[in-house]
């Protein structure tokens, strides 16, 4: 059971209660160590809270601790990312996993209204990932890193392998037998009817596209038995160009940064 929390609200007592309830993985929405960037992202915690919360999680006995970071904001440049990496290195022994996401702008959010926002060049992403690998993190998906292969997040793998999974809480998403289940997105509605689920029936085309997209951006890879002949012909071209490699009846992408382009090529 994995639970998400923010450093400013995850008190020692709360962590103890979560552990006693059976939660065995905790994920902290740190997002940044830099005060200006935290302010830009609307976060109210600081470095001291981050360190204290991680120490408390270890003290309580959590063995699987994740930290979320966000990069590619308008404040990010090489100097900012070096600051993040320096502080990450200092707390590395307190975590077992890292998720590093580029900032995604959704419509009808506060960030969508910031006209001065613009994304930085992709080479910042390459730099950041390269530095994480040099810190001995193992990258098993475009945004996810574990300290060892044994510490890969199991529920992350379940998503990418197309396995069934349950989800509860506001705006949660579950998956079971080719159907996706959504809880209420409005807090009042969720409290009044926490068992409500809207259902999305996924077509074979939907499932094929997801298998391609998720497999190419992770170590899961693509199952050759799920490809049609037309896709296999395209795969052979990618193999010749060394964009993919083949092992144990699966195709793997050695460069996660081009996963979207590869998925588009195979599905169009």
Automatic annotation (TrEMBL):
Domain of life: Bacteria
Gene Ontology CC annotations of this record: cytoplasm
Radical SAM core domain sequence ranges: 2-71
Pfam families reported for this sequence: Radical_SAM
GO molecular-function term, one example from the UniProt record: catalytic activity
TM ranges: none
GO BP annotation list: porphyrin-containing compound biosynthetic process
Protein's name according to its UniProt entry: Coproporphyrinogen III oxidase family protein
Organism name: Campylobacter jejuni
Lineage of the species this protein comes from: Bacteria, Pseudomonadati, Campylobacterota, Epsilonproteobacteria, Campylobacterales
